[in-house]
Amino acid sequence: MPETGALFLTNQSMTAPGELLGLALNAGAILPEGIILLAMLGTLLVDLAGQKAAAKWAPPICYIGLGTSLCLLALQWNGPLEPSFLGAFLADNLAVAFRAVIALSTLISLLISWRYAEQSGSPVGEYAAILLAATLGAMLLCGSTDLISVFVSLETLSVASYLLAGYMKRDARSSEAALKYLLVGSAAAAVFLYGASLLYGISGSTNLQEIGVALLTSPTPLAALALVFVLSTVAFKIAAVPFHQWTPDVYEGSPTPVVAFLSVGSKAAGFALAVRLLVGCFGAFDNQWKLLFTVLAVLSMTLGNVVALAQTSMKRMLAYSSIGQAGFVMIGLVCGTEDGYAAMVLYMAAYLFMNLGAFACIILFTIRTGSDRISDYAGLYQKDPLITLGLSLCLLSLGGIPPMLGFFGKIYLFFAGWADQQYLLVVVGLVTSVISIYYYISVIKMMVVKEPHEASEVVKAYPSIQWKTIGMQPLRAALVTCVLVTAVGGILSSPLFQWANSAVAGTPLLQEAIALTGERALG
Amino acid sequence: MDANLPAMAASQAPFPWLSLIVLLPAIGALLMPLLPEVEESNALNLPRNIAIAFLLADFLLMLTIFGRLFDTQAVGLQLVERVSWIPFIGLEWSLGVDGLSGPLVLLSGLITLLSAAASWNLESKTRLYFALLLVQASAQALVFLSQDFLLFFLSWELELVPVYLLIAIWGGKRRLYAATKFILYTALASLLILISGLALALSGNDFTLNLSELTNRSPSGSFGLLCYLGFLIGFGVKLPIFPLHTWLPDAHGEANAPVSMLLAGILLKMGGYALLRFNVQMLPDAHLQMAPALIVIGIVNIIYGALNAFAQDNVKRRIACSSVSHMGFVLLGIGAIDALGISGAMLQMISHGLIAAAMFFVTGSFYERTKTLSIPNMGGLAKVLPTTFAFFLTSSLASLALPGMSGFVSEITVFLGITSQEGFTPVFRAITIILAAIGLVLTPIYLLSMCRRVFFGPRIPALAMVEEMNPRELTIGLSLLLPTLIIGFWPRVAIDFYEASTNGLAEKLISHTLVTLNQATPLS
Fold first, then answer.
1. Contacts of B169 in chain A (CB under 8 A)
2. Any alpha helices (H) in A15-87, and if so which ranges?
3. Structural domain count of chain B
4. Contact criterion met (CB < 8 Å) for A385 and B33
């Protein structure tokens, strides 16, 4: 390690071309992202050929791109761990797992988008291209191990997200959401840059691992300041209270399929970033960031779940519930044990299916009725038992009712938390889950309990169900997949647990952190 | 079947009979969405018939298993099945039956079957109704049979949503209020169960969720006491224990009669069973400390429940409050910490399950005709409905512990258990008996006065033309009251079933008393 005094110069010499030649570029690691980039270019090209061609060709291009990308990710699983791009990217199992979650969430979001975009009259090709760009950024973010690559991918994700939020150009609320998101997001990015510049100043390197080592040898108050800046960016991305203010407004104004992506894909990227930065870089400030994260988690769980009680709009309710859900995931991160990280990965994957399943249902409902109000769901059971069943199962899973997938995910988080003596977090988590059961079940109550004569006006005018419509097919497929995984996945979740555990086992970064925490606990 | 058995025995895996009991209703529930919705009341009611068929098959299966494979002399678990489910959180599909759970499984099978049969005339959303009923049947059986803490907790929570919807959709006027109250109480209570269970599971050197292994752990001191309190409050909501009972009159009063049968007949027993399984069996030291407190709470339950019942103008709410009162005897029996007391508590659970279900059933059958449950709005029904009256009176008499009925045997056993417990001072025992006896005197007053006001007195003209019970209803009523009479005259039928286990439990408690005494004497 270079002396702190001569940082700048040493760093210059380190990045000298002579040394760089010795390192392999190892570009194969980002092949999945490359495929997505190709798919994005493809959709842009077919978009040039006009609306009709785009509507016809964009979906298959996206499916093929995302499908191939997922296959390549599967091949990377447990692969050799060689840093690529001179230490800017690492495809460890954690990165692969989170990238898979993101790619899958994009795939499902796209499946539920077509019909929605078609109905709102927006060009499909452009939309798909921007969503793929966001995916690209999010996926790169998961594996980034360098401040520069972190920032670049973070901005790719963010800029694409702003565009997506404002995609309904004719809708004032959508534009408002985009503007709000842009303003808050840019501020967060600026704060991150400031934090990153401090880190570079302290350590003289942009590589996260090297920064981590530098911080470990000489923790300074300045580094604590950098921690706060970086942490606030992470908290902004995962929408943790008190950095959540943008979430309800953006979720309510944005097109629903975009919200589906933002609430899962973007959030997963945020958690991957949290692991990379906090676990990988701020090992020296372990106690500090864990304390801060505990506070954030408690606030998120409490505020998210309590405010969700009062919502009348379905999307807003899901926005607040997603804040609460992020709080649950943070329990796993704070634990810092093998089980804790595994529970985090598992819950993220479970959340993907249950949340997207719920979004698929509410999109289908919105397409048919044009409404988003919870009270408008009254009496839906008589008109459309299938959506009612699907939405009920997904909401129950989000609430943690067995035997859905969410129950097992939550139990695992609580087990890990209790084993690591995070009693406060577990108790708050449990109490707020009960609160969440209340508002999830009141939606179910609205749909199932209301008699036909109590049904809302929109449900009375509900079109007779035509499950055969061609345009509905992808949406339906996504819905059925998500609901099935949510409902049956819990009972058959042993492979999923296996997967989450090997994601942690195959990540040196986490293994080191676990060993470190273990040593501290012993000492 | 026999041809398959040797092959299975060779691989050390006997046929999973208990899993079959649990899964059979669940399979029935999965069939429900595929059936056509019943549009007209005269049409063939396929969901109902299939549900009844599944529940009947399940009940017959239980009878066969307990008749042929269950050894009533054995103390430990029988027919054990252990399959690893999710090893990462230690979840196992681990089932087993002993004397504590066996009778209650049988009771839940019978009552669920009769409750489905009592829902014969249900017209709205039949598919959903019977699907929920079948899920409920599975969950109940799983609660009693599971031998893994997490599996137990899973089934405990599983029953939450079906019961909520059953109350919220098919209940009375204030059904939403009652259902929400039910789910909030139960969900909050289950937090404490989960936390106590987790703490226990993580307390030893190695993590385990298996109930038998946790039982061997039996922690003492303040940690054991804290776990005990967590379990007590958690299960106390279900039982219910005095300050935590307020959901019960609402839920039982607002649910329709078949669901009330389930609630009173089985759900309350889940609380009692769990108290025996967790608090008594798993934490004997803490139980020995807390036993007098349980007796005090039990007395409060008995008297407060009875006094509450006086104030109710609604037939079902009055019966619900009487349930609170009767479950006080279960607490007394558990608190008596001897073989007689625990045996009495078990018998009280079985007998109250039958009697309360019978009372709710009869109430439901005349509610279907009179469309009212308000006591002041009724009168003179004995002339119009002599058979219903006979049934109602018989179940009331059973409920007030008339000699010759099961309630008498169980309550007298509990009394004997307390009087014969040398561990308590004579004054404590005497006061307990006197106060419980006051409760016993109050029961006939409120039950018989209800009978008088509903069935005698001036006849209400609007109720003059109602029809009498039909053969189906007679069968259901008799299937509940005959066991009550049989147990009343020949209690051995029921007691033999569980005696080995309750005696084992009592011996364990006694050994723990001795241990504490022996440890204490050298010090003093």
1. 448-449
2. 17-22, 31-48, 51-76
3. 1
4. yes
